Amino acid sequence: MKKVIMLFLVLAGMLPVQAETGTYAYLTFETSDGGKASVSVASLSLTISGTTLTVALQDSEDSSLSFPLSNLSRMYFSNTNETTGIEEITSDTLDEAADIYDLQGHKVSKDQMRRGVYIVKTKNRTYKIMAK
Q1: SS3 for 52-64, per residue?
Q2: Is-above-0.85 flag for pTM?
Q3: Which listed residue, 34, 81, 118, 125, has the most CB atoms within 10 A of its CB?
Q4: Dist. CA 96–CA 65, nearest whole Å
Q5: Is-contact 21 6, C-beta < 8 A?
Q6: What angle do CA 60, 65, 66 make, to 5 degrees?
Q7: Percent of the chain predicted with pLDDT > 90
């Protein structure tokens, strides 16, 4: 826990300096599952509440991002947006799923899903998910 607090203190001290100089345009958050989310430092506000880090974005369609501290592997400044396509989906996404397939191409129901990777097709999008 001391490491996490020290990390955020160092980060808090660096954020205004880096944002003022314009050296780095993005703060990138990397999660333990390999996902990356980059946010502009120009409109950034960080808040820690309990075990959750919330990143508020004033100039974005998405008003905020939240990360459980236990799932956050690192964060760093970068010159480019490194956001990946990995995102968290909710059980509502599975409820609206039109089709669910395993990696062998077999159609399965929500109840048949076990641990593994699946392709979930909804009305608007297709997701690749990992059931744990």
Answers
A1: EEEEEECCCCCCE
A2: no
A3: 118
A4: 23
A5: no
A6: 165
A7: 4
